[in-house]
Structures are given as structure tokens and as C-alpha cells.
Recover the amino acids of this structure.
């Protein structure tokens, strides 16, 4: 799969334009510091890529939407543009872009190769420094034009923020339809912006908590298929499914290890309590990590695979604990008022995102991995289940407003200021973000 | 549901009212009950309807608790008696949670409620080999509204018949 995608998106750096300087400074004048608390979005002009059809405007529309939703960029209205780009290989008239305060400028072209493939070229310019920052081209199957746009948006985001982007990613989630007491729950997948929804299950059985493999086009999830709630693996491209292990009781709350070789999950004990086990997918051996007469669930590995964060009610109500990946040193880290659950370790390793219940509200927040520095990002009637964007800057979660009848998906950045609704046709829950596609 | 909310202030009246009202809904969406299998209606002793209407097939829990409350012990005692009398049935004990918890934790909580119910019935003579438990977490609410009048009905264990055993 990886090889296939790499071949599909051949990348080449374009020769620098006419103003090319010998060596660019390490960082040009235009940049965004994502660590600042209150970020003023960067004004950016994204001109329609030259094309013989509507493809150029489509691609630039997707790029602009990605960058805008990140909260870090403010795409300038096309009506304000002075210069009309007729040759994207030539340097633009920087004065025309400075006048409208376009600190960054994007130009490009989309053409069709003789073999039918799409060729997208783009350049990112620093208007005030009068320099080209990026010049790249991508080749892709025509059906993947949206991916080309997301890849370009990621390149722009990375060049201007110094952080990896997260636009060329997908989200698995549960599509919910029908009345609340007979809700149909189907496994579904879409691009991170809500486009290209595809269903992965028929909805005949309750399906819950899908999670992406960090290394393969594979997900793990829980399903009531055949009347038994169990954890499964699903190959996204082939549709091939398999049961994870053959345990006597319910298995649930699955998640992959960072190397994709293990699934960690809860197994129900006969006494009604739940403990955490890890299963090696190659050797099929299982390792018990907790052995308590309590509910131990929602395990999530640290990105280096050495630790696991999980929920336990061993202290009387659900709280967050950390342990070694072998189950050693189980230590409680959440101590704020209320109960805590659904901990998820950040892909950067520095934070744990969680759902907190206190004062009759549900909150999504983050804390450091030792439990200090708790910050609540959003609070409301009912919301839960954060999942990290692969760059560790944005969380997606699901929220049900009182009286709304069902949940919808939202994203929020770590400042808590940039919240965005993710458009879905039906109610939606349990989002899980993919790694950056390759 | 608003009417139910109003009446809930009198717990004595409500226990009976709820069990009737909910049994009515539950049967609509639960195929494979004994009644669907042609095992008779409410007036037929030993039928699924008999269990749900005359004995009481469910009871409720406190928030985030799997302790069988004192007010549920009567129902469970009657259930045990009934299940011992009609020993041809296999039994599935369902554990459920309200929506005021997160999904995975509630799956575990529902499982603990089902196990507590199973153990209570087993202690009153119902053979463990006849019983199976399943948790639906918060995925199968019977009462649908955004306040405590519904949440308290959804925190439940339901004893269901899976048909005559072999």
C-alpha cells in the first residue's frame, strides 16, 4: 500500500523562479509561531491554479478551506486580488500582493499528462521578502485530486509553521442514523474535511470505537456481530476482517501499539470487572497488563510504546492512570475534581487528552503525562472521545447538544479557541484520526 | 416521557407503571423473545410476557453503581422463582448504562451490572449454566430524553429469555 501511494504521488522540486536567490535564509520573514497563545491568522492569497477546466479552482478551494479551518491562516477574498496570475512560473508582482497585505501567496497550474495523470505544480511566495519559499509538483491519478490539494495544503502549513501538517489524513468514525432507542451504527471513513465518505460495515450489528493502525491501512474496532461484543481487525482496502483473539468474554476498547504490531484492549472478567491485555498480532500471544477487581479500560500507548495510559475506577470513580507497557508501576495521574476517562496519548508524547465529567458537564481537556498542567478546551452538556491529529496540535471529538437528538463531530486546536464542526450527513461519533497518508 | 417524569416523584406508583410501559416498548424492538417464538402472551403463565409484565424483567441502578438496590431485591427474588419454575429457558441478562458516561467505561459498567444480576439469580438457585450476560453500555437506551427521568430508566439490568434450552 505504501509503495503504491508513493508511486502515485511522485514529487519533484521545481526549479526556483526568476527571482531565485542562491540560498534562502533558514526561515523567511513570514512565519507562524504555533506556540503563541493568541495567534493572529496569517493573511494568505491563494490564486486559482491555471487549468483548462474547473479543476484548478477546485483544488485551490480545498487548499484554502484546509488552511482556514486550521485557524492559523486567513485566506484573502479573491475579489481583492490586483494581479491576475497568467504565468505561475514567473515571479508575481510582489507590490500588488503587499498592498492587500497578502503575506504569503500561492500560485500554481494543473495539467493533464499524456497518460491521463494529473500534474499539479505550485509555488509558495513570501510577498514581503520577495522570495519563493516552495516550488513543487505532484502527479496523481485524477480520482485523487482532493488528495493533491491536501498534500499542497500540508506543504504550505509545514513551511510556514515549522510543524507537520495534518490535512492529507482520514478519519474513521461511527455513522449514526435512526431513532435513539434503535440507532443504527455503521463504521465509516472519510477525509479529515468530511469529504469522500465510505461505509465499511452494513449497520446490522452495533459497531463502535474504530481506531487506525499507525502503520497500515487497517483499523481495529468493536462489533456486536453474531450477538457477541468482540474486537475485530479490518483491512480498509480489501474489506478483510478477523477477530482479535478468542476470549471467553467481551473484548472492547481496542487500540494499536505505535508499531502497529499489537492491539491493546479490555477483556471482561467473569466477575464483571474488566482488565487490560495486549495481543501480539504476529505471535498471537496475549499479555495481561492489569489484574484488579475494578474497571480498567481505554488503554492508549505512549508514542515510544514504553508506557500505557488508561482509565480505572479502582479508586472509586473513573480516573486516569499510567503504567509501563508491561503493566508495571500503575500510578494515578488525574486529581482534579470529577471523573476522567478516554485518555489518549499525544503523538508528540507530551500530553494526554481526556474526557472529564464534573459539575454535570462533559469537558475535553489535556494534561501533561504526569497529570500536571490540566487545561480544559471545551465544556458542554455531552461530549467525549478526543482523538489527536497526527501533528498533535488538533483534537477531534464528538458532542451531543441537549435536545439535538444525536452527536456530531468537532475539532478544536490546543489553544481551545479554534473549534470547527466537521460536516457529516448523519449523526456521527467515535472519530479516530489516521496518521499522515503516504 | 414528560408524564413519566412527573410521576416519578412517587416511587411506589412508578415501579409498576414503568415496568409496564417499558415492557411494551422493549418487546417491539427485541425479536426472539419467547412471545415472538410463539410462547404466549401476558396471560399465559410461563411466557416471556408473563416474566416481563407479571414478574418484572428489569430493575434500575444508581448512577455509576452496580449494587443491586434494596428496592430491586423483590423483583430479583420473583425472577429467580419464576426462572426456577420454568427451567426450560436459557437466560440472557443484559446490563445497560445511561448516557452520562463515556462509551467504553459504560460498556464495562453495563457488564458489571449484568454480572451482579446473574450472581444474584445464581445465589437464588438459577443454574449458572443457563445464564449468559451481555453489556450494551449506553448503546440501547429505552427512555429517550435529556434529563434524569430518562437516565434513571436506562441504568438497568434486563432478564431476557433466549428460547427453550436444549
Amino acid at each position: 500500500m505504501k509503495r503504491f501511494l508513493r508511486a502515485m504521488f511522485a514529487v519533484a522540486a521545481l526549479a526556483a523562479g526568476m527571482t531565485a536567490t542562491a540560498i534562502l535564509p533558514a526561515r523567511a520573514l513570514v512565519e507562524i509561531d504555533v506556540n503563541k497563545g493568541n495567534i493572529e491568522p496569517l493573511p494568505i492569497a491563494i490564486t486559482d491554479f491555471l487549468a483548462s477546466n474547473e479543476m484548478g479552482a477546485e483544488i485551490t478551494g480545498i487548499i484554502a478551506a484546509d488552511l482556514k479551518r486550521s485557524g492559523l491562516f486567513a485566506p484573502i477574498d479573491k475579489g481583492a486580488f490586483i494581479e491576475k496570475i497568467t504565468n505561475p512560473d514567473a515571479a508575481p508582482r510582489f507590490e500588488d500582493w503587499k498592498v492587500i497585505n497578502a503575506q504569503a501567496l500561492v500560485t500554481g497550474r494543473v495539467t493533464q499528462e499524456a497518460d491521463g495523470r494529473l500534474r499539479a505544480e505550485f509555488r509558495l511566495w513570501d510577498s514581503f521578502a520577495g522570495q519563493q519559499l516552495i516550488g513543487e509538483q505532484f502527479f496523481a491519478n485524477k480520482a485523487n485530486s482532493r488528495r493533491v490539494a491536501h498534500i499542497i495544503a500540508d506543504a504550505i502549513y509545514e513551511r510556514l509553521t515549522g510543524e507537520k501538517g495534518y490535512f492529507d489524513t482520514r478519519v474513521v468514525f461511527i455513522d449514526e442514523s435512526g431513532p435513539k432507542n434503535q440507532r443504527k451504527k455503521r463504521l465509516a471513513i472519510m477525509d479529515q474535511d468530511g469529504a469522500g465518505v465510505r461505509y465499511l460495515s452494513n449497520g446490522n450489528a452495533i459497531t463502535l470505537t474504530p481506531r487506525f493502525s499507525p502503520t497500515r491501512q487497517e483499523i481495529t474496532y468493536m462489533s456486536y456481530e453474531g450477538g457477541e461484543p468482540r474486537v475485530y481487525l479490518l483491512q480498509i482496502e480489501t474489506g478483510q476482517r478477523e477477530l482479535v483473539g478468542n476470549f471467553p468474554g467481551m473484548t472492547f476498547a481496542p487500540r494499536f501499539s505505535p508499531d502497529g504490531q499489537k492491539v491493546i484492549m479490555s477483556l471482561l472478567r467473569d466477575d464483571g470487572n474488566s482488565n487490560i491485555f495486549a495481543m501480539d498480532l504476529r505471535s498471537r500471544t496475549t499479555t495481561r497488563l492489569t489484574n484488579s477487581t475494578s474497571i480498567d479500560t481505554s488503554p492508549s500507548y505512549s508514542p515510544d510504546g514504553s508506557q500505557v495510559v488508561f482509565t480505572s475506577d479502582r479508586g472509586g470513580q473513573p480516573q486516569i492512570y499510567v503504567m509501563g507497557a508491561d503493566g508495571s508501576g500503575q500510578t494515578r495521574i488525574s486529581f482534579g475534581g470529577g471523573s476522567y476517562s478516554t485518555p489518549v496519548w499525544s503523538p508528540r508524547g507530551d500530553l494526554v487528552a481526556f474526557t472529564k465529567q464534573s459539575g454535570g458537564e462533559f469537558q475535553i481537556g489535556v494534561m501533561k503525562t504526569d497529570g500536571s498542567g490540566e487545561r480544559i478546551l471545551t465544556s458542554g452538556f455531552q461530549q467525549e472521545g478526543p482523538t489527536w491529529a497526527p501533528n498533535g496540535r488538533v483534537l477531534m471529538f464528538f458532542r451531543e447538544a441537549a435536545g439535538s437528538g444525536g452527536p456530531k463531530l468537532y475539532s478544536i486546536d490546543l489553544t481551545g479557541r479554534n473549534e470547527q464542526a466537521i460536516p457529516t450527513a448523519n449523526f456521527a461519533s467515535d472519530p479516530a484520526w489516521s496518521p499522515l497518508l503516504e | 416521557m414528560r408524564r413519566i417524569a412527573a410521576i416519578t416523584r412517587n416511587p411506589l406508583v412508578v415501579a409498576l407503571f414503568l415496568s409496564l410501559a417499558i415492557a411494551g416498548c422493549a418487546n417491539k424492538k427485541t425479536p426472539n423473545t419467547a412471545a415472538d417464538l410463539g410462547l404466549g402472551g401476558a396471560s399465559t403463565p410461563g411466557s416471556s410476557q408473563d416474566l416481563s409484565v407479571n414478574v418484572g424483567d428489569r430493575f434500575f441502578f444508581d448512577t455509576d453503581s452496580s449494587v443491586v438496590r434494596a428496592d430491586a431485591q423483590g423483583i430479583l427474588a420473583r425472577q429467580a422463582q419464576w426462572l426456577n419454575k420454568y427451567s426450560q429457558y436459557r437466560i440472557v441478562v443484559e446490563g445497560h448504562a445511561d448516557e452520562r458516561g463515556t462509551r467504553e467505561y459504560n460498556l464495562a459498567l453495563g457488564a458489571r451490572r449484568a454480572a451482579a444480576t446473574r450472581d444474584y439469580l445464581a445465589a437464588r438457585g438459577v443454574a449458572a449454566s443457563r445464564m449468559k450476560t451481555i453489556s450494551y453500555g449506553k448503546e440501547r437506551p429505552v427512555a429517550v430524553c435529556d434529563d434524569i427521568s430518562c437516565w434513571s430508566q436506562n441504568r438497568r439490568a434486563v432478564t431476557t429469555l433466549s428460547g427453550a434450552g436444549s
In short: Residues 7 and 140 of chain A are 9 Å apart (CA to CA). The helical segments of chain A are 2-8, 55-69, 94-99, 145-161. The mean pLDDT of chain A is 91.
